[in-house]
């Protein structure tokens, strides 16, 4: 009999090479009118995204909007880039998800372990990682890591080997007392990834694959994509092979890290978003309790940060129209995922912004900011059951300020 780790590895390889499911097998499609949405308002998304592509904002994009358990808008725009003219397909094209890894992998794995009683949010990190007990680090809790209040710096330069990079992360000195202030830090989720590995006895990618993705039917979400998937992967940046993570710290850690490294499709993220809207269950299978999902997605008293997730305070990638209870995250490569429980709505925008313009260079980040915010606003504005808000005369992307 094969050892369990070998079986898990075989499952991971097999699922990463499977053809993408038909889009309606796990998450059905519905006409906008059937879920209280306006098709005409959603159609403005085409103009917003195409305007950005025409301006050289990014080679390609995938957008998915869902409501009441169904996908109502699913489009691919532009091409994979990096020399490939293949069209983006929201069900098949994998993007480097960057910091969406923090919520779709690390926070998701933490939810499972918290729900099972194997991880305590207020436990000191040193309970699981003796290497993380010196001085004030002994007071850093799992909750601190998730809320970016550990006192760790935003990041640091790592080494050429994964083992030495791990040692450097765990040896990083705090820059503030635990809980004292908010500092968005990649190091916090990296350390949490180490905690998850210590508890489960297996790498983060392997655990989250069988504990979350396989159970949800997410067939195209993976760290370190197999070479056979390269024709389906959107270019991330010039000179970087398809499927190689853009983030330097994740690369130094071997491509699997708690803060970045995950690749996936918009279609798979739609399944994950629906799982979050369904408060921890999918198709009658409960992965975590609804109270656990609520705890992870509730904003803290001091700021808009939840546990791993951010909440929408208006502005940024969530636009101005999503509810205050909406939660989501973005990724540096040009990705975003927002979930609005009050409207039973989710919005996914994946782009390869740093892949560069056709003539070279990266477009101003204002292009990306405007598109992500406009798409989120349009999804909210398209909800017309009740008293629909009036449509604005123009969107941010029409003004092209800073483009």
UniProtKB/TrEMBL annotation:
Chain segments annotated as coiled-coil in the UniProt record: none
Keywords, comma-separated and alphabetical: Hydrolase, Plasmid, Signal
SUPFAM superfamilies tied to this protein: beta-lactamase/transpeptidase-like (SSF56601)
Endpoints of the signal sequence: 1-22
Domain Beta-lactamase-related stretches: 45-353
Entry-linked InterPro entries: Beta-lactam-related, Beta-lactam/transpept-like, Diverse_Enzym_Activities
Alphabetized Gene3D superfamilies for the sequence: DD-peptidase/beta-lactamase superfamily
Entry GO MF terms: hydrolase activity
Matches recorded under PANTHER family: BETA-LACTAMASE-RELATED (PTHR43283), BETA-LACTAMASE-RELATED DOMAIN-CONTAINING PROTEIN (PTHR43283:SF11)
Protein name, entry field: Beta-lactamase
Organism in which the protein naturally occurs: Gemmatirosa kalamazoonensis
């Amino acid at each position: 009999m094969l050892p369990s780790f070998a079986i898990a590895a075989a499952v991971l390889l097999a699922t990463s090479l499977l053809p993408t499911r038909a889009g309606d097998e796990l998450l059905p499609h519905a006409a906008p009118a059937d879920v209280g949405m306006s098709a005409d308002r959603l159609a403005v998304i085409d103009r917003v995204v195409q305007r950005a592509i025409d301006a050289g904002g990014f080679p390609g994009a995938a957008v998915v909007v869902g409501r009441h358990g169904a996908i109502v808008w699913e489009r691919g725009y532009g091409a994979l880039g990096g020399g490939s003219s293949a069209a983006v397909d929201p069900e098949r094209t994998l993007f480097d998800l960057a910091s969406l890894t923090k919520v779709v992998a690390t926070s998701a794995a933490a939810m499972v372990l918290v729900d099972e009683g194997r991880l305590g949010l207020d436990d000191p990190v040193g309970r699981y990682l003796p290497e993380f007990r010196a001085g004030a680090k002994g007071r850093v809790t799992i909750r601190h890591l998730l809320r970016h209040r550990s006192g760790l710096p935003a990041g640091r330069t790592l080494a050429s080997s994964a083992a030495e990079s791990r040692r450097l992360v765990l040896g990083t000195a705090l820059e503030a007392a635990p809980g004292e202030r908010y500092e968005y830090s990649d190091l916090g989720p990296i350390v949490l990834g180490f905690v998850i590995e210590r508890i489960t006895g297996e790498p983060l990618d392997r655990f989250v694959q069988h504990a979350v993705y396989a159970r949800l039917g997410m067939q195209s979400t993976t760290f370190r994509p197999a070479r056979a998937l390269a024709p389906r992967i959107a270019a991330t940046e010039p000179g970087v092979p398809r499927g190689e993570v853009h983030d330097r710290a994740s690369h130094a850690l071997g491509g699997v890290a708690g803060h970045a490294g995950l690749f996936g499709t918009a279609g798979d993220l739609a399944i994950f978003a629906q799982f979050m809207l369904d408060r921890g269950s999918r198709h009658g299978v409960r992965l975590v309790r609804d109270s656990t999902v609520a705890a992870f997605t509730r904003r803290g008293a001091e700021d808009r940060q939840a546990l791993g997730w951010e909440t929408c305070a208006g502005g940024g990638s969530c636009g101005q129209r999503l509810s205050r209870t909406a939660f989501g995250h973005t990724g540096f490569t040009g990705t975003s995922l927002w979930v609005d429980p009050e409207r039973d709505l989710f919005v996914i925008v994946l782009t390869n912004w740093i892949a560069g313009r056709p003539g070279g260079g990266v477009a101003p980040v204002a292009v990306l900011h405007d598109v992500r915010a406009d798409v989120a606003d349009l999804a909210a504005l398209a909800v017309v059951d009740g008293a629909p808000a009036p449509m604005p005369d123009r969107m941010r992307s029409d003004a092209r300020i800073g483009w």
